[in-house]
Write a structure and sequence with these properties.
The protein is an alpha+beta fold. It contains five helices and four strands; from the N terminus they run ββαβααααβ. A four-stranded antiparallel sheet has the order 3-1-2-4, with helices on both faces. A hairpin with a 3-residue loop joins strand 1 and strand 2. Helix 2 crosses helix 4. The longest helix has 12 residues.
Amino acid sequence: MDAKYVGISEYFATGEGVTYVIASGTKTQINEFAGPYFSIGLELYSFEEMKSALIECEGMNETRIMDDKRLRAAYVLQTHLPSVAEFIKQYGFGTFSYKLHYNLS
């Protein structure tokens, strides 16, 4: 059985907007969901790493969170998918996929 991960990608481009990709599964499943372009910047975390980061970043100020990639990933997950973040903190694993793109220009 392949290991399961949480994959998170934040893509920012001037004039193109912002794209977030957040998904769980095997490395292959996450990369397929993200697609060839967004999988390049994908960060993968075990569910235990993500669970501990979610617990650790509770009550922290944003400056400290932004300085640590693991905590930043937990913050993005908590911000975009709060119910999934709570599920991971409580149960440790869940299957999900999320892609959001917006452009304000």
